[in-house]
Amino acid sequence: MDRKERRRFIVQLVNERKIETQDELLQLLTDAGIETTQATISRDIHTLNIVKASDANGHTYYVQLQKDPAHNYDRLYLGIRNNVRTIETVQFINVVKTELNSSYATILAGMFDELDVPEVIGTLAGNDTLILISKTPEDAQKVYQLIMDHMNG
């Protein structure tokens, strides 16, 4: 199965089921005879604009972002509220900490990149740390405020 077919199948799985983890997605792919790696799944999730959302009971699962920018900002705000623990600004850079070992920093980076937030010129993400780079300290302060406004409700 080539990359396009695998990605179509991932979208189908995400739309048909409430998949809570990458491991669960990887297992579903393996069960369907699709051999791949965790790193590949991570890249596919990012490329396909798949993020985690919460249901009414607080369970998180993967959903694919819609093309409506207002809807995507809602997903960003939800992601910030549910996953960002701290933020610190250093000159023109914001350092954002998410849940430890959640890999959510990369998902948030993808959301900022996809939305093309004007005050963010670049992102860099690790497992639980996201770096948001702005042109000026003033732009960084606007990003800081956006995140603070949506942290923890």
From TrEMBL:
The keyword Amino-acid biosynthesis applies. Residues 81-147 form the Arginine repressor C-terminal domain. The gene is argR. Belongs to the ArgR family. It comes from Limosilactobacillus oris DSM 4864. Regulates arginine biosynthesis genes. One of its GO terms (molecular function) is DNA binding. InterPro entries: Arg_repress, Arg_repress_C, Arg_repress_C_sf, Arg_repress_DNA-bd, WH-like_DNA-bd_sf, WH_DNA-bd_sf. Keywords: Amino-acid biosynthesis, Arginine biosynthesis, Cytoplasm, DNA-binding, Repressor, Transcription, Transcription regulation. It is found in: Cytoplasm. It comes from the Bacteria. Pathway: Amino-acid biosynthesis; L-arginine biosynthesis [regulation]. GO terms for biological process: L-arginine biosynthetic process; protein complex oligomerization; regulation of arginine biosynthetic process. GO terms for cellular component: cytoplasm. Residues 1-67 form the Arginine repressor DNA-binding domain. This is Arginine repressor. It holds the Pfam family Arg_repressor_C.
